[in-house]
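Amino acids appear as letters; backbone shape is given numerically. Here is one record.
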Amino acid sequence: MAWTWRFEKADGTEVPPAVEPEEFTTQGDAESWIGEVWKELLEGGADQAVLFEDEKRIYGPMSLHAESDGGEGGEGGGGGGGIDGVEPGIGSEVAEAVAPPEASGATQAPDGI
């Protein structure tokens, strides 16, 4: 099983990545990698990414733009609001996909309540 990313312009046209990804052995490894290099990918001309497991599309397209920057790129739009300091946009989508329930503020009521 291999997890890979496809990088696209906003119109869905495939573009070469500014940072060459590897084939990942787990979804978590693929998501961690894109969480580390998404700004470089954005600066290199990619607007969105799609995650595949082998030939099956898992999710996407997922914007590489911070939510608050209107999709125009650039730095500093969102002020960090994602999990583990990852900026909104990609950070919020990837972080929600991999975060444990307690990170989202969800709590489980004790039995009998």
User: Anything to note?
Assistant: The CA atoms of residues 43 and 97 lie 24 Å apart. Confidence is low (pLDDT under 50) at residues 70-88, 98-104. Strands lie at 3-8, 48-53, 56-63.
